[in-house]
Design brief:
By secondary structure, this protein is of the alpha/beta class. The chain has two domains: 241 residues, TIM Barrel, CATH 3.20.20.70; 65 residues, Arc Repressor Mutant, subunit A (Orthogonal Bundle), CATH 1.10.10. The chain is built from ten helices and 13 strands. It has an eight-stranded mixed β-sheet with strand order 1-2-5-6-7-8-9-10, with helices on one face. The protein has a three-stranded antiparallel β-sheet with strand order 11-13-12, sandwiched between helices. Helix 2 links the parallel strand 5 and strand 6. Helix 6 runs parallel beside helix 7. The longest helix has 17 residues. The radius of gyration is 20 Å and the shape is globular. Bound molecules: iron/sulfur cluster. The site of iron/sulfur cluster has 10 residues, from loops. Iron/sulfur cluster binds next to loops.
Length: 315
């Protein structure tokens, strides 16, 4: 069986997600330098039918029944293949058919084909779409995402904008930051300005945390992450980090250190917010000093404010 249905697995963006991987690896129109699936072996922009839809739906049904029979919650059925899901010309039919399970449907896409009417139409039936926006500058886009040579940066960005205008579901954006490639201040400002013009419910900032396609890829430092967060949060209602910790900013253990690590893995805290948090938890600033000394937290000035952020994994 070439396709895979897996999970439900916990996901910060999607809660408990049952994954549907229905593309031959690795079929994509990008060859992102940070791709955790390795190099693109099947680079194409042609939409094709890959697998038998009926067979795949039977597999999804089996997985849904198995999960529900064990009282496992499924928040989303998610198309998250080893490649770009909109390259599958059966995607619209598959979304329509999995909708019959009565579980919200999500698609994780690189957004490269949203300039096509048929792709926008297919995705319009999903409940949630997460679109990758790593770059808005054509030169930076070519360096970080290494797109198929027939793709035009203006068309890709225009397609994302059009989709955002018409889509009635939940739109998320995700930006992967790679040190020295797409993390310069001028580019981050341009990117924030583009993302701010979309009606996204939330934007996620991620960094490479698994072995990337290219060995030279390294994540940016905490200072860049704090800057990107500040720029995006001035234009998008909700911004979160995906930096390799499964932080949960909304649950409290009652342990001040643990709670601070969970929150700052997702959102950097300004000094004022941190002071208020400590007061509410009946704790003193000594906890923060000690976490700074042990390099669990990092203190970063930006834009006249001081941010406190969980140190990146492995640093
Ligand atoms: S778009 Fe996704 S699957 Fe394609 S190369 Fe980039 S990270 Fe990998």
């Amino acid at each position: 069986m070439p396709y895979r249905v897996f999970g439900p697995v916990p996901s910060r963006r999607l809660g408990r997600s049952l994954g549907i991987n229905a593309l031959p690896p690795k079929t994509c129109d990008y060859a992102c330098v940070y791709c955790q699936l390795g190099r693109t072996t099947h680079m194409t922009v042609e939409r094709q039918g890959f697998y038998d839809v009926g067979e795949l739906m039977n597999e999804v049904e089996r997985a849904v029944r198995a999960a529900l029979s064990q009282d496992e919650r499924i928040d989303y059925l998610t198309f998250v293949p080893d490649g770009e899901p909109t390259l599958d010309r059966n995607l619209g039919e598959m979304i329509g058919r999995v909708c019959d399970f009565g579980i919200p449907v999500a698609v994780i896409t690189n957004g490269s084909l949203l300039w096509r009417d048929d792709v926008r139409e297919d995705l319009s039936a999903a409940d949630l779409v997460s679109v990758k926006i790593d770059a808005v500058d054509p030169v930076v886009w070519k360096r970080v995402d290494r797109p198929h040579r027939s793709l035009s940066p203006e068309a890709v960005l225009g397609g994302i904008r059009d989709f955002s205008r018409d889509f009635g579901g939940t739109l998320l954006t995700e930006t992967m930051l790679v040190s020295g490639v797409n993390d310069g201040e001028a580019h981050l400002k341009e990117l924030a300005s583009f993302v701010g013009g979309l009606s996204a419910h939330a934007s996620y900032l991620s960094i490479p945390t698994r072995p990337p396609a290219e060995q030279w890829v390294v994540p940016p430092g905490e200072d860049v992450l704090a800057r990107a967060y500040a720029l995006l949060s001035s234009v998008v209602p909700h911004v979160e980090y995906l930096i390799g910790y499964e932080g949960d900013a909304f649950s409290r253990t009652g342990d001040v250190r643990e709670d601070l690590l969970s929150i700052t893995a997702v959102h950097p805290m300004r000094r004022g917010a941190l002071t208020a948090f400590l007061a509410e938890a009946n704790a003193s600033w000594d906890v923060v000093e000690s976490m700074l000394r042990s390099h669990e937290l990092v203190e970063l000035p930006y834009g006249g404010e001081t941010f406190f952020l969980r140190a990146l994994p492995g640093r």
